[in-house]
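Risk mitigation, structural track. In case the binding assays with zinc ion fail to produce interpretable data, a predicted complex structure has been prepared as a fallback.
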Amino acid sequence: MRCCERCFKDPEIKAIIRGNNTRGNCDFCHSNNVFICNLENNEYLKDNFESLLDVYTPIDEMEHTYPKEKADLIKNILCTQWSIFNLDTDAVYKFLVSLLPEKYSEQPTLFDNPIGISGTVDEEYMSRYSILGTYQWEDFVKEIKEKNRFHTNIINKDNLKTILLSTCKQYKAGSIFYRARICHDKQGFDEKDMGAPKAPNVSAGRANPEGISCLYLADSIDTTFHEIRAGVFDYVTIGTFRLLKDIEVINLAAIDKISPFQEIDCSLLAINLPHLRKIEYEISKPLRRHDSLLDYLPTQYISDYIKSIGFAGIEYKSTMCKLGVNFAIFNEKLFECIDTKSYDIDSLTYGYSGVE
Ligand SMILES: [Zn+2]
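Fallback model:
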């Protein structure tokens, strides 16, 4: 059986299959003349999927009771919780059985019966491996909003750091980003007015607390137009920013899609996936007019921690502009505004849906 690079979303596996430099037809997604690899003699795929499957145990074989509602089949877990495959669940099942025939004959229940991570019902294991110990994201939100803001012990920073380092991304000096400001007239702003708001007149955002300056940038003019949320007939100035030195940011847009096939403990990643999805969702959630500033505390905490371990900023996806990417840069001096151009918002299109 042969799989191909199109069967996968995972960048590590795609690179390995491409590296084989063999073209042919895929038995799983049925693409033709694509980079393929033969499952029978690919030790890389066998070893990596075997390690990932070993994170899980059939719930009937666990020594303790595991909540049935949290158990699922391996094919479903790999499709819904991980960002590995571009295949449907039945094709994933076929792939696993074809890749690991010996494992299937030794332990068919791992492939065919509901499974779970046995450690997730063990307090000591969770304290050691989860970024939130035995707590859920909602407990952390309540703690930081209502109980202990600056010195909470809920977050296991060592585990958080290990995971964050897997989403580190480099940008080279000279990279170009954009920032928009709504202006009073068609003259707009010039370069010196386009930087981050200065302390103490800084309002809170998802990545910065009130009073602490942060430069919010976007990857394109289109993204920044969406993010600024100008009204019709507003004037908007777009500043073009050039990066002055090489930097590293933490890509929170990818934090719930980290490959288990890179240098990271699969178990650590597996038990933290629900928390990582929350972080990814919360950081990119649009600010609403009537939000309580307290709602930003959890993501401000994560962002502040990323700053404290030496990264230049965070990257997260735009929910206002499909495929757009935003950046929160902790030190605005890393960039210079090299150009501005002003625009008149002459029309707007509103989208809406009923509130559930
Ligand atoms: Zn394929």
